[in-house]
Design a protein that fits this description.
heterodimer, A: about 200 residues, alpha+beta, three-stranded antiparallel sheet, about 15% strand, elongated, B: about 350 residues, mainly beta, seven-stranded mixed sheet, seven-stranded mixed barrel, 5 helices, 21 strands, about 35% strand
């Protein structure tokens, strides 16, 4: 009794009812037929929200790197560092390992996430579906690691409070950088990879 | 089986919620606006770029050394290079917005380093923070090339009423910061010291403050009152005296005007600075100041006069002076004698 089962089936995550979303228009969300709770968001909304948030993160990426994240005052000598200048100073001082870690976590990873999210918000092609799903998983995993830099600065600031001898305060770049990380995390968790597979099923 | 399938698979409902996508796009628009504003603001706000020439740039570093006026940072050093002929250093300064007056003719720049000789405790702070460049605004046409002054200019708060020149054979302990004191109160300052053409004499340029200018006249007498006075006598014991701690460290020049004051100063007058008296004898002459100039001519005529004028002989209000260790080949040395 092999009928052609529709492959646009989704199980409700609340009540377990298997629903068929073939008739749902692209711009509308779907709710479960049994419990009426949300089944899946609309495809256009999903793509656009992901794109919007990743573009916002991209916009904030520039001030995050142009403005200092750290302002130090040691014995009256004032100095400030952006992410890049901090990496360069670390490398110049011989701390190659830390410099590479900071460079990866604070410069490479955010750009990689932003580009990945923009790519994901584009229409899917059949050949790249599994890559896209893997990409979503990778983004989920590495996303929080960019907060490394923010926490390091926060700890430094709370530890180094020696009055006029040494003093560290935040720079505007840190706020922008936190915005970049948070926005990319929200975007990557918001993205619903199921839409890719449902599309394929409807071909 | 198919019945089961038909029971278990039901078409989903179209969700009734229709959230607008507008809110989603507001986020990147706001982010782009903020980012654009921040990027635009991060473009350095400089009002002018000034080039300074200095003999050496010890302790200065590009992007770290600040330019300050009255303690407020007004600019920063962006580049330090040697001149083409390696004879001096060239410092490039970027002035902050709103401080265009420092790029006008008449502006002055000097490097503040720790210096004990000036007795200025403020510059000790530069031991910790590193030297900085101090500036004073100008008010002429736009000018962007300056020479760094070797010494700080005279404080702008005390306006100089007149500059006069003092001559002396030996500089002794006179420095640029040595003050001119009238009855102990500072009324002027040594601005510059140099040798004359043939190196026989020292010329000191002295600036007198405007508000005390009327005290000094063309017949005033200047003498070196710095350092220590040590007096030994067989019966009187030892006596060590100095005008003040500052006079001890920095030198001191005292000035007094005779009872009948002469004409007001116009500026540029030349005076002799009488050197510190030497005390190797207990005998001396005690005279009243208003006769000092007459005494000079008297002494030349009667070299061994040993008269003694008592204090009571001096008219009230005049400063009695003791003339000690006369040596007629040299100038008479006068030393203030305050009534006790």
């Amino acid at each position: 009794m092999q009928t052609n089962m529709p492959t646009t089936l989704l199980g409700c995550q609340y009540c377990g009812q298997v629903n068929d979303i073939a008739q749902i228009p692209e711009s509308r969300a779907a709710s479960c037929s049994r419990c009426n709770l949300r089944l899946i968001g609309s495809k256009t909304s999903n793509r656009q929200v992901t794109l919007a948030l990743s573009l916002a993160a991209l916009a904030l990426y520039f001030p995050a790197n142009l403005y200092p994240i750290l302002k130090m005052n040691q014995l009256g000598v004032y100095s400030e560092n952006t992410i890049l200048s901090g990496v360069v100073h670390l490398a110049a001082s011989g701390f190659w390992g830390i410099a590479i870690v900071v460079f990866t976590a604070s410069i490479l990873v955010p750009i990689f996430k932003i580009m990945g999210l923009i790519y994901l918000s584009l229409p899917a092609k059949a050949a790249t579906l599994s890559i896209r799903t893997r990409l979503v998983h990778v983004l989920h995993v590495i996303g929080p690691w960019s907060m490394l830099d923010v926490f390091v600065v926060a700890i430094l600031i709370s530890l180094v409070k020696l009055g006029d001898l040494a003093n560290i305060t935040t720079g505007a770049g840190l706020v922008a950088f936190t915005g970049v990380v948070v926005l990319t995390m929200i975007a990557s968790y918001h993205f619903d990879a199921r839409h890719d597979w449902l599309e394929k099923a409807n071909e | 089986m198919s019945e089961n399938q038909n029971e278990t698979v039901v078409a989903a409902n179209v969700s009734t919620s229709k959230a607008s996508l507008v809110f989603a796009w507001i986020v990147p628009i706001i982010a782009a606006l903020i980012a654009g504003w921040l990027v635009w603001r991060s473009i350095p706000e400089t009002s002018a770029i000034v080039t300074l020439t200095a003999p050496k740039a010890d302790g200065l570093s590009a992007t770290n050394t600040q330019v300050k006026y009255r303690g407020v940072p007004i600019g920063i050093v962006t580049q330090i290079v040697l001149e083409d002929d390696l004879g001096a250093t060239r410092l490039t300064i970027e002035l902050d917005e709103g401080y265009e007056e420092f790029a006008k003719a008449g502006a002055q720049y000097w490097i503040v380093r720790p210096e004990f000789s000036t007795g200025n405790l403020e510059s000790l702070r530069t031991i910790v923070s590193g030297p900085y460049i101090a500036a004073q605004p100008g008010d002429g046409n736009i000018e962007t090339e300056f020479d760094v002054l070797p010494h700080p200019p005279v404080s702008a708060e005390e306006s100089i009423g007149a500059r006069i020149t003092l001559l002396l054979p030996h500089l002794q302990s006179i420095k640029r910061s040595t003050r001119i004191s009238w009855r102990g109160k500072a009324i002027g300052q040594v601005l510059d010291t140099r040798l004359n053409q043939n190196g026989q004499q020292v010329h000191i340029t002295v600036g007198l403050a405007q508000e005390y200018l009327h005290l000094v006249r063309k017949n005033s007498v200047f003498w070196n009152s710095g350092g220590l006075d040590v007096e030994f006598g067989l019966f009187s014991g030892a006596e060590v005296r100095a005008e003040s701690m500052q006079a001890l460290l920095q030198g001191d020049i005292s000035v007094a005007t005779p009872e009948e004051p002469g004409a007001h100063l116009e500026g540029g007058e030349v005076f002799t600075l009488y050197p510190k008296p030497e005390r190797n004898g207990s005998s001396g002459y005690r005279i009243c100041f208003n006769k000092a100039q007459q005494l000079e001519s008297k002494l030349k005529r009667r070299p061994h006069q040993k008269g003694d004028i008592r204090l009571a002989d001096c008219p009230a209000g005049s400063l009695p002076y003791r003339l000690v260790n006369l040596n007629l080949d040299k100038d008479p040395r006068v030393k203030p004698w305050y009534s006790r």
